């Protein structure tokens, strides 16, 4: 009888020990860091820490890059915040200097649509804003530049150098109607057209700030900065923007042409 009781007691103690061991194993914390990442990159990946790495350097169990460069902006242009690779754009966008944490709370998911709400966090914001959209394209199927992943509010690459500080200080930039000169455009605003300031408007970047330039933008001798009306006959290249080539003759406030809308500096 005593032997049976002893065996029963040992069995109970064994069950308690197993239960404690199972409970101990179950309660061990998972110390592995987990990351969200950009997922679709064929060759490179960016995770939510801002680390960009080769796909072969990704830990698929955690979603994190095992090695790589954090906040890598080497493929991006600091002036327009546009990058040649999507993953590089996300990585650079997450750099503290660009304040993605606060912008995610202020920028709508879909511009001009308040019901779209704001971004969940910095990583979601950078993933969304770095995607290619119509502002970085011309002809609807061609990119303005290889750097077409942008995390600026402008959302498109700049093809010329930034304007010098104060270049357009005191200048009202206005757009004309078809066949209207800049002299006429500025006179309607009780101002004068400044031929001196026309050179600062003579670029595709400045034109795209005021016109859609849906068909693209080219430097062509002749007129100053202008946009061809979208309803113009096809031979006139509707929806095209034109600027004078660098080093061209002085631009004129009196230039005009049918179906062209001029970009004018009024002072």
TrEMBL record:
Its main location: Golgi. It is found in: Golgi apparatus membrane. It comes from the Eukaryota. The keyword Signal applies. Residues 1-19 form the signal peptide. Pfam families: Glyco_transf_18, SPRING1. Keywords: Glycoprotein, Golgi apparatus, Membrane, Signal, Transmembrane, Transmembrane helix. GO terms for cellular component: Golgi membrane. GO terms for biological process: positive regulation of SREBP signaling pathway. InterPro entries: GT18_cat (IPR026116), SPRING1 (IPR019352). It is a single-pass membrane protein. Belongs to the SPRING family. This is SREBP regulating gene protein. It comes from Astrephomene gubernaculifera.
């Amino acid at each position: 009888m005593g032997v049976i009781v002893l065996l029963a007691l040992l069995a109970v103690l064994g069950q308690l020990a197993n239960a404690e061991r199972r409970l101990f194993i179950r309660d061990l914390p998972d110390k592995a860091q987990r990351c969200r990442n950009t997922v679709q990159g064929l060759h490179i990946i960016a995770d939510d820490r801002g680390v960009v790495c080769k796909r072969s350097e990704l830990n698929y169990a955690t979603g994190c890059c095992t090695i790589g460069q954090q906040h890598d902006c080497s493929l991006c242009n600091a002036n327009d915040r546009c990058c040649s690779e999507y993953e590089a754009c996300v990585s650079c966008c997450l750099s503290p200097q660009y304040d993605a944490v606060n912008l995610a709370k202020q920028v709508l998911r879909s511009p001009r649509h308040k019901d779209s709400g704001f971004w969940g966090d910095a990583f979601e914001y950078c993933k969304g804003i770095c995607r290619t959209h119509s502002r970085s394209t011309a002809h609807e199927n061609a990119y303005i530049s290889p750097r077409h992943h942008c995390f600026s509010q402008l959302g498109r690459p700049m093809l010329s150098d930034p304007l010098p500080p104060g270049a357009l200080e005191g200048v009202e930039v206005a757009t004309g109607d078809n066949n209207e000169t800049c002299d006429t455009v500025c006179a309607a605003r009780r101002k004068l057209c400044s031929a001196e300031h026309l050179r600062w408007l003579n670029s595709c970047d400045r034109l795209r700030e005021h016109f859609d330039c849906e068909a693209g933008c080219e430097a062509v001798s002749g007129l100053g900065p202008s946009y061809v009306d979208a309803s113009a006959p096809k031979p006139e290249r509707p929806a095209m923007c034109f600027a004078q080539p660098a080093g061209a003759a002085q631009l004129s406030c009196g230039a005009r042409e049918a179906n062209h809308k001029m970009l004018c500096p009024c002072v």
